[in-house]
TrEMBL record:
Keywords: Metal-binding, Methyltransferase, RNA-binding, S-adenosyl-L-methionine, Transferase, tRNA processing, tRNA-binding, Zinc. The gene is trm1. It comes from the Archaea. S-adenosyl-L-methionine binds at R42, R67, D85, D112, A113. It catalyses: guanosine(26) in tRNA + 2 S-adenosyl-L-methionine = N(2)-dimethylguanosine(26) in tRNA + 2 S-adenosyl-L-homocysteine + 2 H(+). Dimethylates a single guanine residue at position 26 of a number of tRNAs using S-adenosyl-L-methionine as donor of the methyl groups. The keyword Glycosyltransferase does not apply. This is tRNA (guanine(26)-N(2))-dimethyltransferase. It is an enzyme of class 2 (transferase).
Length: 372
């Protein structure tokens, strides 16, 4: 074992040197999973949980226990934290790490994640599986008390983005053609899946924060009980479209086969969430907490993400500047100049080549041509 520090937590993890192969190391090779590339994910999660302020927490796939421990030390969780994992080696490690960090209000359980989530009722459940969260969503939603919050990580972007459309159909019930704004499309497909699973339990969802980073999606949704709330959430599910000819991108509840701009054929993808991806109030409260969180690994990166999510919220799908330039047969303009020309545009955290704007597609094309 080796000890590392993350945030305010001191954590024992299996020594990566012992489980390296030919000088390389993959966290999946370790007997207990700890991924240092997910520090940013956990930093954002700590801030989110500090705003949610749950009285009870379930870390459904706890591994080393790092998330739950940081929720207590940095997220202000005073209520019971339940650490669950089906791996007996992980259970031993969680116990040591809880003792190391002097956590007092806790419970350790060894069970299948779906089984334990069906048995418990908590204010916040954290679901961080290896790969797709799809097999666990129904149970995770059922584990929540009234107005409970679910935190979800998904790393199976190949399926969600439409690179593997058959896998997307199997796991998330979505199909169609992969779009040039696939990173946003994948997140919206995931949200739609969560909304449908919640609706079966007569719950609606309200996205608090949803984002893409590196190779994963992370989102937090608040649940609201009642059939009418479930129906209202389902009204936010539709289809995503992109014109094969002119590149116009849009979202609609109705089935579309022709582009409303040029009459060309459209590629469709979904069903997907077509509502807002974030709560501005929740993001602003996270920013306030960030100013008082010196333990965050890279506060500037977290602030940039939150600022980007605030500026993007409520806008339609992003446009890839390089794709539009290719369709128009013009040189790709610098992003900052295009945003200045539009007077109402922003970079997107989804793709460094992308922008979002509330201006019309005609105005976007006019700026592209004028800057060529």
């Amino acid at each position: 074992m080796t000890e590392i520090t993350e945030g305010k937590a001191k954590i024992l993890i299996p020594d990566p040197v012992e489980f390296s192969r030919e000088g390389k190391f993959d966290p999946a090779w370790s007997p207990v999973f700890y991924n240092p590339r997910m520090v940013f994910n956990r930093d954002v999660s700590v801030l989110a949980v500090s705003v949610i302020s749950p009285s009870s927490v379930l870390d459904a796939m706890a591994a080393t226990g790092i998330r739950g421990i940081r929720f207590v030390l940095e997220g202000g969780v005073n209520g019971e934290v339940i650490f669950n994992d089906k791996n007996p080696v992980a259970i031993e490690l969680i116990s040591k790490n809880i003792e190391l960090n002097r956590i007092t209000n806790y419970k350790i359980m060894r069970a299948d994640a779906n089984s334990i989530m069906h048995q418990l009722k908590v204010d916040y459940t954290d679901l961080d599986p290896f790969g797709s969260p799809a097999p666990f969503l129904f149970a995770a939603l059922s584990s929540l008390r009234r107005k409970g919050v679910l935190g979800v990580t998904a790393t199976d972007l190949s399926a969600l983005e439409g690179k593997s459309i058959t896998a997307c159909n199997r796991k998330y019930g979505a199909s169609g053609k992969r779009l040039n704004y696939s990173k946003e499309a994948g997140l919206r497909v995931l949200l739609a899946k969560i909304a449908r699973e919640a609706a079966v339990q007569e719950k609606g969802i309200l996205p608090l924060i949803s984002f893409y980073k590196d190779y994963y999606y992370r989102l937090f949704v608040k649940t609201v009980d009642g059939a009418k709330r479930a129906d209202k959430a389902l009204e936010q599910i539709g289809m995503l479209y992109e014109c094969q000819n002119c590149g116009f991108s849009f979202m609609d509840k109705e089935c579309q086969v022709k582009c409303p701009m040029c009459g060309g054929e459209v590629n469709a993808y979904g069903p997907a969430w077509i509502g807002k991806l974030n709560s501005i109030d929740f993001l602003n409260r996270m920013k306030e907490r960030l100013d008082k969180a010196p333990q965050i690994n890279n506060p500037n990166s977290v602030k940039r993400l939150l600022d980007s999510l605030i500026s993007e919220n409520g806008m339609g799908p992003y446009y890839r500047i390089d794709v539009l330039a290719s369709k128009l047969k013009v040189n790709m303009p610098p992003t900052h100049r295009l945003i200045d020309c539009l007077e109402d545009g922003t970079r997107t955290h989804f793709d460094e080549r992308g922008i979002k704007t509330s201006k019309s597609f005609d105005q976007l094309i006019e700026c592209m041509k004028n800057l060529a």
